[in-house]
Amino acid sequence: MGRHADVVFTGGAVYTADPARRRVVAAGTGALPGTGAPSRAVAVRGDRIVAVGEAGGQDIAGLIGPRTEVVDLRGRALLPGFQDAHVHPAFAGMTMIRCNLIGAATLDEALARIGSYAARHADQEWIAGSGWRMEWFERGTPSRHLLDQVTGGRPGYLTNRDGHGAWVSSRALELAGIDALTPDPPDGRIERDAGGSPQGTLHEGAASLVGRHVPAPTFDERVRGLLLAPAHLHARGITAWQDAIVGEYLGSDDPLPVYLAAARAGTLSARVEGALWWDRDRGSEQLPEVLARRVREKLDER
Question: Using CB atoms within 10 A of its CB, is residue 293 exposed (0-12), middle (13-18) or buried (19+)?
Answer without folding.
Answer: middle
